[in-house]
Amino acid sequence: MMKSKQHTFSELISFFNQTGSGIPGDQDYDAKLCRILINASLSEAASIWRLNPEARLYLAYGTNVDMAEIGKFFLEVGEGISGAVALSQKTIAVHQTVADARHSERLDNIIGFHTKSMISAPIMAQGRLYGVINIVNRKAGGPFPEQWKERLSVIGALYAYALSLTGSPRTVEDSYVEALKHSQELIDPEKTVVVGIAPGIQNALRMALKAGRTDIPVLILGETGTGKELIARRVHEAGKEKESPFLAVNCAAVSESLMESELFGHVKGAFSGAVNNRKGKFIAASGGILFLDEIGDMSLPCQAKILRAIQEKKIMPLGSEKEVSCSVRIVAATNKDLNTLVLQGKFREDLYYRLCGMEIRLPPLRQRREDIELLATYFLKRTPETKQKILADDSIEMLKNFSWPGNVRQLEQAVMASAAISDQFQIYPEHFPPWFHKAMQEKARFDDQDGALISNKVFSNRSADDEIEKERYLEALRATSFPGTGRWNISAAARQLNIARKTLTYRMQKLNLVTKKYNAS
Questions:
Q1: pLDDT band with cut points at 50, 70 and 90 for residue 5
Q2: Positive or negative, the Cα torsion across 453, 458, 461, 463?
Q3: Which residue(s) pair with 119 in the sheet?
Q4: pLDDT at 275
């Protein structure tokens, strides 16, 4: 049997100029492109994923999937390597999927295919994202050659350009990822945006989706500023109550004397100033979701009344002697350990068991380092005044090196303040607000005292070659450090060494050179 001729990369490029290739976006066109792609890249499979109006990726074509099954497979926002590419809009090459936390085995299990290595590139042109294109498993085994990362990026751009010329109806201008890079105006106003590809936040999103399909209470746990209300809203949007009200009460912000009126309402004359009847949140949210934020701060008397309302599905407005039926789903959140509060007698055990039908835990931002650049970009691109600005590499590293005790909310404040301060296209470290610099300085001093920064320590078990390499790096780092501070400028050192910044960072980690904090003055 005659073997099919291997296509070259040039022939793959010429596919987009051939009139007989078909209509971009049609299944026949995608099938031809994928067949040429796997032949040229010597891969086992290729696939094309497109964005739908809900900003989810759906499988438009896959060489390893039965034609009758195509269209049935979806990825949630940020799910898997393809989801990560759609979020970051950057090509990702993975040599061993088993060692990459971003890889999702869910589809492999459904399709009956084992993904070992892959390259995934955005289908994107002129600032518009259409989806992602993948090559999977090099036939010879091992990782794909390095040049195929760039090549697939080119293919993704050419395919997107072809789609833009056809006016493909599957272009999704109001998708989440489009909004991430371009403008808040394109975000579906009914869709709550949660940015993140870190496993912890993706797990929280999946749990929110599952919670939305049930009627049981939900308890969201996480530090202040991690996005608990956003997850509560995603629960609401995923459920049958999505057309019904979603009302939120911050239990820490309402005094005990006003809490009862806020939750259960009051009748006219119930107290001084009560000139009209007023519905409480339990009635106003009827049929929908009542979000009780920071419920760990609620007083014991209020907890008792909340418990009764949940159990009996009835409330009594303040000043009334008549009970009113209510049907509302409770989603609660706290930044406290409710188990500890129960043991201390500060939180009712019976209420805790009523609230925690399903728990969703949100990771702090310090455990989501891979999301910091995505979040910062999102904050800049969602407003017209800042959407043209970008963060310099040094600024991104500075953000990643901070512990963010205030989590995502604090990151947003730092990024937006720096955008306001900067008069330039790029945002540099000196544009960050004074409070941020002060916090970085304090943390650097603490780390120095605690011995966490070991940049100049020589380990006896290093080889002579490692020591020579280490000294060469240290010499470049010292020569390019920020004046007057001694803080390392990784980008400048990499340029002096004539190596990629990522390469320098990787070698520094291997040599136990912990990156010094950047200049914060």
A1: low
A2: positive
A3: 93, 135
A4: 66
